[in-house]
TrEMBL record:
<feature type="binding site">
    <location>
        <begin position="67"/>
        <end position="71"/>
    </location>
    <ligand>
        <name>substrate</name>
    </ligand>
</feature>
<dbReference type="Pfam" id="PF01180">
    <property type="entry name" value="DHO_dh"/>
</dbReference>
<dbReference type="GO" id="GO:0006207">
    <property type="term" value="P:'de novo' pyrimidine nucleobase biosynthetic process"/>
</dbReference>
<dbReference type="InterPro" id="IPR049622">
    <property type="entry name" value="Dihydroorotate_DH_I"/>
</dbReference>
<feature type="binding site">
    <location>
        <begin position="264"/>
        <end position="265"/>
    </location>
    <ligand>
        <name>FMN</name>
    </ligand>
</feature>
<dbReference type="GO" id="GO:0005737">
    <property type="term" value="C:cytoplasm"/>
</dbReference>
<dbReference type="InterPro" id="IPR024920">
    <property type="entry name" value="Dihydroorotate_DH_1"/>
</dbReference>
<feature type="binding site">
    <location>
        <position position="43"/>
    </location>
    <ligand>
        <name>substrate</name>
    </ligand>
</feature>
<feature type="binding site">
    <location>
        <position position="216"/>
    </location>
    <ligand>
        <name>FMN</name>
    </ligand>
</feature>
<keyword id="KW-0560">Oxidoreductase</keyword>
<comment type="similarity">
    <text>Belongs to the dihydroorotate dehydrogenase family. Type 1 subfamily.</text>
</comment>
<dbReference type="InterPro" id="IPR013785">
    <property type="entry name" value="Aldolase_TIM"/>
</dbReference>
<protein>
    <recommendedName>
        <fullName>Dihydroorotate dehydrogenase</fullName>
        <ecNumber>1.3.-.-</ecNumber>
    </recommendedName>
</protein>
<keyword id="KW-0665">Pyrimidine biosynthesis</keyword>
<feature type="binding site">
    <location>
        <begin position="191"/>
        <end position="192"/>
    </location>
    <ligand>
        <name>substrate</name>
    </ligand>
</feature>
<dbReference type="GO" id="GO:0004152">
    <property type="term" value="F:dihydroorotate dehydrogenase activity"/>
</dbReference>
<keyword id="KW-0288">FMN</keyword>
Length: 302
């Protein structure tokens, strides 16, 4: 009932793991796969090892989490060994892999994408980390840089390429237009929303990086509106992410125009098997309303 096809790839369900949570090691990906995800997205991986920002890198706030991990990762060569360890098993479980990558410029993005291509089903371009200097949002807030990165990666690989967008822009349609013009196969929205928390006793920001990206329930309505706008303006598949905790949240994103959803912070609140729970909740809704998954994608626009 939840099988879906996106860019010619079959997914057993449209409820995926978002990048950044539990994506650091092969065994963590396997754990999420066992929790019922239709696909797992890796932590964003760069060309070289990166220790990330200093602690504290995460703090719980009203409605979610504020993080400034700083894209920590072991570098693409070492990370691919992690994927190699679990690839066959994920395949047997019918769980697809989305490889999230970042880089400092289009050459670096293309190089990492080429290395990843053989190990994953889709490449997700993280051009939207809110607090990585010289990477992430610096690229995703600039339509020309976004175009160049997407164009270079599209030229470098044959598998589908999705761009993950930042909501920290004045006009997300301008950025989305640039990446669609560059030929991306789909869009992922949204990355986290810039925020800050201050320890009033220490009288300074809590995160070592001072500011970070807000995820969780607090950003769901922002994500829904972005997905709605993207669906109105573009004819490529959209993966919705931001504050999804339940089947109802996932359905809301789908009715706004998402073909699939990703869950990150929700794993903390509902456990590793949140993917199975959300799928069951979607199925109950579809049965109650006598609808199919295909019918609900973009339904609120009609
Ligand atoms: N944090 C986010 O909120 N988004 C990203 O894309 C990456 C990070 C991080 O690694 O800090």
């Amino acid at each position: 009932m939840l099988k879906t096809n996106i860019c010619g790839i079959e997914f057993k369900n449209p409820v995926f793991l978002a990048s950044g949570i539990m994506g650091e090691t092969g065994s963590a990906l396997k754990r999420i796969a066992k929790g019922g995800a239709g696909a797992v997205t890796t932590k964003s991986i760069g060309l070289n090892p990166n220790p990330g920002h200093k602690n504290p890198t995460i703090v719980e706030v009203y409605g979610g989490f504020l993080n400034a991990m700083g894209l920590p990762n072991p570098g693409v060569d070492e990370y691919l060994e992690e994927i190699e360890k679990v690839r066959d098993e994920l395949n047997r479980m019918d769980v697809r892999i989305i490889g999230s990558i970042y880089g400092k410029d289009e050459e670096e993005f293309a190089e990492v994408a080429k290395k990843m291509e053989r190990y994953v089903d889709i490449i997700e371009l993280n051009i939207s980390c809110p607090h990585a200097k010289g990477y992430g949002a610096t690229i995703g807030q600039n339509p020309d840089l976004s175009y160049d990165v997407c164009k270079a990666v599209k030229k470098a690989v044959k598998i589908p390429v999705f761009a993950k967008l930042t909501p920290n822009v004045t006009d997300i349609i301008e950025i989305a237009q640039a990446v669609v013009d560059a030929g991306v196969d789909g869009l992922v929205a949204i990355n986290t929303v810039r925020g800050m928390a201050i320890d009033i006793r220490a009288k300074k920001p809590i995160l070592a990086n001072k500011f970070g990206g807000l995820s969780g329930k607090a950003i769901k309505s922002i994500g829904i509106k972005v997905v709605w706008d993207l669906y109105e303006n573009f004819d490529v598949p959209i993966i919705g992410v931001g504050g999804i905790m339940s089947g109802e949240d996932a359905i809301e994103y789908m009715m706004a125009g998402a073909s699939a959803v990703q869950i990150g912070s929700g794993v903390y609140y509902r456990g590793y098997d949140i993917f199975k729970k959300v799928c069951d909740e979607i199925i109950s809704f579809l049965k109650e309303e006598n609808l199919t998954l295909e019918e609900i994608v973009g339904m609120a626009h009609e």
